[in-house]
Design goal:
Chain A is mainly alpha-helical. Chain A contains 11 helices and no strands. Chain B folds into 2 domains: 231 residues, P-loop containing nucleotide triphosphate hydrolases (Rossmann fold); 127 residues, Beta Barrel (OB fold (Dihydrolipoamide Acetyltransferase, E2P)). Chain B contains 8 helices and 20 strands. Classes of the chains: A mainly alpha, B alpha+beta.
Chain lengths: 264, 368
């Protein structure tokens, strides 16, 4: 029955429209020449992007977000790779419990996690600070890294490592010579996940950030409370481009790496 | 000089347990310098576990492993100077053939020009001198296995460990590689421990075979000894086709014993001079006779069996024609026997009455 399929197709198109139309509107309005963010647009202009560049608070928020995202990616990926190795390659008491605990931050609502960490640190008398914010981001990006890296590591046969060790490579040399190159695509993917999730995050960040420090999402949030400035559209457009482009680039890089791994 | 000086590997009272399960029971084994030893048995018999304990890939629960007289229990694998070849080759997929073979030399601080020479020689030895720049994925299974072998021998290991290296190859290639592997082992004179479940590989390649079952060593001996004089019912049944018959000792005189086989009658059997068993009258035993040792001839006009042999009357129930040979399923007395005989043009027909010649030297007495 062709009409049944047409209905499904129409439904799919409408759902996607509903999801992506607002994004398209934000990007379009970022180029609007007028003060007021409304259609019809009165002309094209890059003035709001220029205004972003001149707004110190936004530039500072951008720097904070980038630094936070990069540090989160580095720390989360390092910890995630080590945790995955332990989970896949070794047996130890309490393994299932630890595995569940490492994945739990995905399952617990972020608000709960945010409040819990804040109360815990308050109870032991640690003030809010940038390292605390970073720790929070690491906690809830870690499960993503672990899930991706673990899946890849399961597919890397233990024999490769055993062969390397039988030839005289110690455990550390074996990791850098054999294991890491073989799981590299997953490690990069994990790092990108960590970066984009950290870069986008607002809930946890609102709870954990020390006074005076803003990330891009919290900056947007703060600006929205005062007025709906067209700058927000431009900033939103930049955010969208970064959070879409970074994973795409990463995926391309990963594909290139694994293709190179196959053919030498 | 101690007795172990010319042993490449010694296992002394080695045991491997996983919780309550014993994978390898108390095992003592010595492997002579330069020899080719095979651990043979069905899957789950503990042969791979034994190999992995020698390699240092699996910890030892009890006992001691020594390589060249040095205890290695606590020496990690990368300090044992071994060459290991795995069933699935385990060539590093992200490195070229050259880098794979040169890998072990890097950790032995070999100078660049010597590395170049030795990798070249190793590739020459496995007859793949032109594969150096290729990726492992561009090679066939047989070629990958040769490179894995080159990678293992280029470091001049004290012992070469082969874990079912031929079982992933197809049948023809497997036989070629068998000859090839033996040639390389012979050229280098390298002590080799080979794990397989394939009896023909074991018989063709080994200086000594260790037959294992359920984590225990059933028999250790050269291929002829293991084949012709099996020490247990398991060994007799695992290598080739054997008739295993319940029997009772009637009399023993030196190297000869007369036994009564249930439902078949009295037969003469050979006892090894060094056999410690008393084999007293009335003792119940098993008698093993290889299928190809039962010679058939038509009952009419059959020659006398000769000294130290008996002739049994039988009838052919089924013929399994295999070209060069035929496998016959026989009825003799109240027993069923198997016989494999070479054939000239036509096998003996089904239903034929035959005379079965049984020689005393082919009858082996096993514990009941």
């Amino acid at each position: 029955m062709p009409s049944g399929w047409s209905l499904i197709r129409l439904g799919t198109v409408l759902v996607y429209l509903f999801m992506f139309a607002p994004v398209a509107v934000v990007i379009l309005l970022a180029f609007n020449a007028s003060q007021f963010g409304a259609f019809p647009m009165e002309g094209l202009s890059l003035r709001w992007f220029a205004a972003l560049w001149e707004n110190d608070a936004i530039v500072r928020a951008f720097e904070t977000s980038l630094l936070l995202g990069l540090l989160t990616a580095v720390i989360s990926t390092t910890l995630g790779v080590l945790a995955s190795l332990a989970m896949v390659r070794y047996d130890f008491p309490g393994k299932n419990l630890i595995a569940a605990a490492l994945i739990a931050p995905i399952l617990v609502p972020e608000v709960v996690l945010a409040v819990a960490l804040l109360l815990f640190l308050g109870a032991i008398g640690v003030p809010k600070s940038f390292p605390l914010l970073l720790a929070g981001h690491v906690i809830f990006t870690l499960p993503f890294v672990i899930l991706v890296v673990q899946a890849r590591l399961v597919g890397v046969k233990r024999e490769y490592e055993e062969a390397a060790m039988s030839l005289g490579a110690g455990p550390v040399e074996t990791f850098f010579q054999i294991t890491l190159p073989l799981i590299l695509p997953a490690v990069l993917a994990g790092a990108l996940f960590a970066f984009t999730i950290s870069f986008d995050d607002i809930t946890g960040t609102l709870f954990w950030k020390p006074g005076g420090v803003e990330t891009v999402p919290t900056q947007i949030f703060a600006m929205l409370r005062n007025s709906i400035s067209p700058e927000i559209n431009a900033l939103g457009a930049v955010m969208i481009v970064i959070t879409v482009a970074v994973p795409l680039l990463g995926a391309a890089l990963a594909r290139w790496l694994s293709a190179r791994g196959r053919t030498g | 000089m101690s007795e172990t000086d010319h042993h490449a590997v010694d296992l002394r009272g080695v045991v491997k347990r996983y919780g309550d399960f014993t994978a390898v029971h108390r095992t003592d084994l010595s492997i002579e310098e330069g020899s080719f030893l095979t651990l043979l048995g069905p899957s789950g018999c503990g042969k791979t576990t034994t190999l992995r304990m020698i390699a240092g890939l699996t910890s030892i629960t009890e006992g001691e492993v020594a390589i060249k007289g040095r205890r290695v229990n606590d020496l990690p694998i990368h300090k044992r100077n071994l060459g290991v070849v795995f069933q699935n080759y385990a060539l590093f997929p992200h490195k070229t053939v050259w880098d794979n073979v040169a890998f072990g030399l890097k950790y032995r601080k070999t100078p660049a020009d010597e590395t170049k020479r030795r990798v070249g020689e190793a590739l020459e030895l496995v007859q793949l001198p032109h594969a150096a720049d290729r990726a492992p994925s561009q090679l066939s299974g047989g070629q990958q296995q040769r490179i894995a072998l080159a990678r293992a021998i280029v470091v001049r290991p004290d012992v070469l460990l082969l874990d079912e290296p031929l079982s992933a190859l197809d049948a023809n290639l497997r036989e070629d590689m068998r000859v090839e592997l033996k040639r390389i082992q012979h050229t280098l004179g390298i002590t080799t421990i080979f794990v397989t479940h394939d009896q023909s590989e074991a018989l063709a390649m080994s200086d000594r075979i260790v037959v294992m079952s359920d984590g225990r060593v059933e028999q250790v001996g050269d291929p002829q000894a293991v084949y012709n004089r099996p020490a247990s019912e398991f060994v007799a049944g695992f290598l080739g086709n054997s008739n295993i018959l319940p029997a009772r000792i009637l009399a023993r005189e030196g190297e000869r014993a007369e036994v009564e086989v249930e439902g078949l009658g009295a037969l003469l059997a050979t006892v090894e001079p060094q056999d410690p068993r008393p084999l007293a009258r009335g003792e119940t035993v098993k008698l093993a006779i290889r299928a190809e040792k039962l010679a058939l001839s038509p009952a009419i006009g059959a020659e006398a069996p000769g000294p130290d042999a008996a002739a049994l009357a039988g009838r052919i129930a089924t013929v399994d024609y295999q070209g060069q040979v035929a496998r016959y399923f026989l009825e003799a007395g109240q027993r069923q026997l198997q016989s494999v005989n070479a054939i000239d043009e036509h096998p003996l027909p089904e239903g034929a009455e035959v005379s079965i010649r049984v020689r005393a030297r082919d009858c082996v007495i096993l514990p009941a």
